[in-house]
Amino acid sequence: MERVVTSGAATEVTLKPKDYKSDIKPVWCPGCGDFSVLAAITRALAALKVAPENVAVISGIGCSSRIPAYLDTYGFHGAHGRALPLATGLKISRPDLCVLVAGGDGDGFSIGGNHFLQVCRRNVDITYIVMDNQVYGMTKGQASPTTEPDWDRSKLTPHGTRINAFYPLVVALASGANFIARASSSDPNGAAKVIGEAIGHPGFSFVQVLSPCVTFRPEQRDWKKIVRPAPIEATTDPAAAARRLMTDDNFYLGVLYKGNRAPFEPDSAGQPSTEQELEEEFKV
After folding, report:
1. For residue 142, what is the domain's CATH number?
2. Structural domain contains residue 85
3. Minimal CA–CA distance to 104: which of 70, 75, 67?
């Protein structure tokens, strides 16, 4: 089941990735993987021919959450961990928009962790792109939910966190996400393909992008040598996807799961359709 992305005016013009970029220069550290993720997003949108005015990008707090400012689309920089409910409300009220959510592992899986679970369950037609570097980069290198338990290079956890890491793909599958994939910032073209596929798939789509923080985790530069395509094709069977995750070492790239659940759509019968009708509902 594939969703047709409406392109509006884009059907009459040729759009290029640069047409989605704003004039604001990114302030990420040199070598940050988020540069490549930004490029991947613009390439995906250009390939889908979605007009910039038909795109809304929502984010929370963190290095990766600066994405809306660097795009010439509609955008909203929300509160820490609250990007997903904001995007859910927007998509339900404006189903004609292509709604993307950009965030990081701290914003998405710590303070925003419960929202992540609930948006997977609801299956609203939005795409969530998480730039995962296993560290809080903006606040100077603390361990994040996806940090391995023996990472001991933070002053706050000099002996490691000693707790299990959060596994986003496992949680997304168990919670009901309709599309689940992993990409790498070291392959922006591959990431663009996966993100484009996620946008085109109906329901809630989740893409984890391995995006190194070279400032606080310089060892992550080696990720580009470790990541590799998954040996098994994407599946529509959640049980098969779960079995594949049992052998996943967190460096397999590609689409894991393509569900066929119908996206959540609220019952609009009897709802106010004009500003005047809405005001009438709030009169005491």
Report:
1. 3.40.50.970
2. yes
3. 67
Helices and strands counted in the chain (H then E): 9, 8
Q: Which domain holds residue 225?
A: 27-281
Residue 179 corresponds to which tokens in the numbers above? Answer: 């599309």
Which residue from 178, 190, 174 is spatially nearest to 227, judged by alpha carbons? 190
Distance CA 179, CA 255 (A): 8
> Is 62 inside a domain boundary?
yes
- Provide the H-helix boundaries in 49-143: 83-93, 105-106, 113-122
Q: Please report the sign of the dihedral spanned by the C-alpha atoms of residue 117, residue 61, residue 221, residue 216.
A: negative
- Pairwise CA distance, residues 214 & 221, whole Å: 7
Tokens of 126: 């939005």
What is the torsional sign of CA 227, 183, 135, 164? negative
What digits encode the pLDDT tens for the residues 116-145? 999 999 999 999 999 999 999 888 889 999
By DSSP bridging, strand 252-258 and strand 179-184 are: antiparallel
Residue 11 in domain: no
What confidence tens digit (pLDDT) does each residue in 49-61 have? 999 999 999 999 9
In a domain, 20, yes or no: no
Considering the entire predicted model, what is its pTM?
A: 0.90
Strand partners, 253: 229
Q: How many domains does the chain have?
A: 1
**CA–CA dist 257, 242 (Å, integer):** 9
